[in-house]
Amino acid sequence: MISGLICSVSLVWITFIRYYQAPLVTTQMPEGVSVSKIIFPAVGICTNNRISKTAVEELARNLLKEERNKNYTEKQMLSLLLGLGLLYNQQPMNEKLVQPMKLHRALGDYDVNELMRNLTPRCEDLLMRCAWNEIPMNCSDLFDFRLTMNGYCCTFNYLRQSDITFEDKSGGARSMDMYKYGNKSNFDFGQGLKALIKLNTSDDFYYNMPLKGAQLQFSDAYDFPDAPSGSFSMQIVNPSVEMVVLVTASFTEASRDIQHVPAKLRRCLFYDESSYLPFYTHSDCLLKCRMLFLLAKCKCTPFNMPKMVNNRTCDMRDIPCLKVYNAQSTTVRPDVDTIPIELELDMVGGGINCPMCYPSCSKTAYSYDFMNTKIWPDYLNTVPDSDRIDWLQGANFTGTSMVHVKYAREVADCYGQNVIMKWFDLISNIGSTCGFVTGFSFVSVIEFIYFYTVKLYREINNRRRQEKRVGSETSTVNNFEPISRYRPIYWNELGGSTQWKLGSH
Description:
Elements: H1 2-21, E1 24-34, E2 42-47, E3 49-52, H2 53-64, H3 74-81, H4 100-107, H5 112-119, H6 123-126, E4 127-132, E5 135-137, H7 139-142, E6 143-148, E7 151-156, E8 164-165, E9 193-198, E10 204-207, E11 214-219, E12 232-237, E13 241-254, H8 263-266, H9 282-298, E14 307-308, H10 319-329, E15 332-333, E16 352-353, E17 363-374, H11 377-382, E18 400-407, E19 411-419, H12 423-438, H13 442-476, H14 492-495, H15 497-504
Helix pairs in contact: 1-12, 2-3, 9-10
């Protein structure tokens, strides 16, 4: 019996431990979900040339008109303005040519966001032809000029309302209903987004990476395009190529039943259960953590991040501070588990700890495959319009590249996340284990509790009351004879009435 109880307790304990170590289960839905029901990812097109030569020359001429810049020539001013590239990345540059404080004084009173927006090559000069789901469209109707981690770019299906982020819960206008809207596409050869890009090298002034061409970036439709924060992918589009991007989507939906499981065990958060953000996403959480780190260190946030209300945007004076913390600010540690010594990130000061940032419980993830094909612009220009597809009719292919983003499959993988056992499943499991090993069940437990609590209490209470009653009866009147246990014998009971009748005769 004792060995059976020990075995039962051990098995029940193991069941509890396994339940709390892995309380969730993820299952794949065999039928999946149609890609036509999933929002198309946000697509951004940015030229590697981040500063337009035409725009910066005009800026230099305007600055030379100021009294404070009378000692500069146009060539010197252009060399000084090259330092604006440090606002994109904090790469080492020739300190003799690039002097942030001199440039700050030369610019005078300026707004960083407005300045960099005006200097960025425009979408009208970059995008020549566009089509969406086989329908030719004006590029200005499809693309917006929005802020990304690479500065201002031409963005498609980027549904964030503004570049000012992290509002209070009372002022946030974002909700789950927003995910019902946005551009959607089907699986077909001609479906998706198409764009003919003009790479004008004559307007180049500053490259944020030493490559000609453009950057093609992808993110979730509502996430800020930011590489260190996740939900981001990027590919370089070289000149004179046709790039086909095949998008594969997977959708994960978590049941609300898992919400009672502590976040440290389920390792995910729903959109409405974080005090850190009014509308929680994993990408926004990491982005805010990085921005608060830079705000604490440099008293400002970079211009290529969303603007925080009542906080200053970094300008040329803050370049030295941003260079110091650049590597650390891009290395995020969202988990609180102890890192082994051999894996510590000593070169970046251990990165930034963001223990509040768990993955989103319900999310759409995208993966991308890229295929490049060389095109011959001179030959394509000779093809008559009658032999061209609709959206390329009348186009000049000199110095261009083509991009086609479409779905690779008709169905997206769909996953459901739920608790591995609900409370009644856990009780049933424990009861069956005890019944199998010792014949013990929950009914036996109830009976055991009843007999050794309620029943025992009633029995003890009845005996106490009986003893009190007997004691009170014997102590009230002393002249009464005590009640005897045995009464006097009636002799007729021994022989019976029949014998006495016979004797009388």
